[in-house]
Amino acid sequence: MGKKLIIILGFIAAVLAVILAVTPFSNLAVIPIVVAFICGLSIFFISRKEKSKPKSIQYIFLMVIIALVLTVYKSVYYTSEVGDTEQLEQRDEENLEDSKELLEDIDFDEDI
């Protein structure tokens, strides 16, 4: 029961790591990579004690390596570009002026 649970947890973590590695959230892929790697190592040591060689170890480590390569690649070569900040500042000023106009148009009852 324990070995199957670790295998399932390892596969889930490895698949999640690969999915996160290809999305813009590639920095978050490190956590499932570590979990899948630990699960893979524990399955490896359990299978060594039992003298069996399940293929699941190879698949988990393959997905961990793919996710790790993609994560490192994106962190090294991805540059975030800052857009034109002048347009954003102009929009903020316009929104502030519109808000002031809306507040001036509101009538407050002094009876309350």
Global Rg: 26 Å
Structural class: mainly alpha
Question: Kindly, what is the distance between the CA atoms of the first and last residues, rounded to a whole number of angstroms?
Answer: 69 Å
Succession of helices and strands: HHHH
Number of strands: 0
Give the integer mean of the pLDDT values.
85
Number of helices: 4
Q: How is the biggest beta sheet arranged?
A: none
Low-confidence stretches: none
Overall outline: elongated
Share of helix among residues? over 70%
- Proportion of residues in extended strands: under 5%
Tell me what the structure shows.
By secondary structure, the protein is an all-alpha fold. The protein has a domain at 2-76. The chain has 4 helices and no strands. The longest helix has 22 residues, at 56-77. The protein is elongated and about 85 Å long. It starts with a helix and ends in a 7-residue tail after the last helix.
Features:
membrane; mainly alpha; transmembrane; 4 helices; transmembrane helix; 112 residues
Describe the structure in brief.
Helices cover 76% and strands 0% of the residues. The chain has 112 residues and is an all-alpha fold.
List the helices and strands and how they pair.
Elements: H1 2-22, H2 30-50, H3 56-77, H4 85-105
Helix pairs in contact: 1-2, 1-3, 2-3
